[in-house]
């Protein structure tokens, strides 16, 4: 979706760059979506190969039974990352990922008492995923190719 309002050339310090910004905006958004998706897949790969491996950790956060939540965490990261990267069911996949990342913010900030230093990456991840949960994918996505978005 390329309906993001672009600054008028009169509001730019260098008005001649307006066309460049407008033409690169869809590419930048697609690049961010693909990078976020691929890195989420990479992060979730270790969990998907051992889907019950995080059972104790999720139970320590109060999510019982861990044998239910651990595979769900694994699938959200791995398969959700694939969906985000290709732009299919982008909003629900990104929303689920946002929830997972907000839990990791709590885990690092509160449970492990690491504060901002420990939760910083999770906050950035959650913000990027929240962007796609609200925005959806753009024209360079399977959602756009099939003409349907969630």
TrEMBL record:
<dbReference type="Pfam" id="PF07681">
    <property type="entry name" value="DoxX"/>
</dbReference>
<keyword id="KW-0812">Transmembrane</keyword>
<feature type="transmembrane region" description="Helical">
    <location>
        <begin position="61"/>
        <end position="86"/>
    </location>
</feature>
<feature type="transmembrane region" description="Helical">
    <location>
        <begin position="12"/>
        <end position="41"/>
    </location>
</feature>
<dbReference type="GO" id="GO:0005886">
    <property type="term" value="C:plasma membrane"/>
</dbReference>
<dbReference type="InterPro" id="IPR051907">
    <property type="entry name" value="DoxX-like_oxidoreductase"/>
</dbReference>
<keyword id="KW-0472">Membrane</keyword>
<keyword id="KW-1003">Cell membrane</keyword>
<protein>
    <recommendedName>
        <fullName>Oxidoreductase</fullName>
    </recommendedName>
</protein>
<dbReference type="InterPro" id="IPR032808">
    <property type="entry name" value="DoxX"/>
</dbReference>
<comment type="similarity">
    <text>Belongs to the DoxX family.</text>
</comment>
<feature type="transmembrane region" description="Helical">
    <location>
        <begin position="123"/>
        <end position="142"/>
    </location>
</feature>
<keyword id="KW-1133">Transmembrane helix</keyword>
<feature type="transmembrane region" description="Helical">
    <location>
        <begin position="93"/>
        <end position="111"/>
    </location>
</feature>
């Amino acid at each position: 979706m390329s309906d993001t309002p672009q600054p008028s050339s009169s509001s730019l310090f260098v008005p001649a760059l307006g066309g460049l910004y407008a033409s690169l905006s869809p590419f930048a958004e697609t690049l961010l979506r693909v990078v976020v998706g691929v890195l989420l897949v990479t992060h979730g790969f270790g969990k998907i190969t051992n889907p019950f491996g995080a059972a104790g950790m999720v139970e320590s956060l109060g999510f019982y039974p861990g044998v239910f939540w651990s595979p769900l965490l694994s699938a959200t990261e791995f398969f959700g990352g694939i969906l985000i990267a290709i732009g299919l069911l982008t909003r629900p996949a990104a929303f689920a990922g946002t929830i997972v990342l907000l839990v990791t913010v709590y885990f690092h900030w509160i449970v492990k008492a690491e504060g901002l230093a420990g939760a910083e990456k999770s906050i950035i991840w959650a913000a990027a995923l929240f962007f796609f949960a609200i925005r959806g994918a753009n024209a360079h996505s399977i959602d756009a190719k099939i003409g349907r978005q969630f």
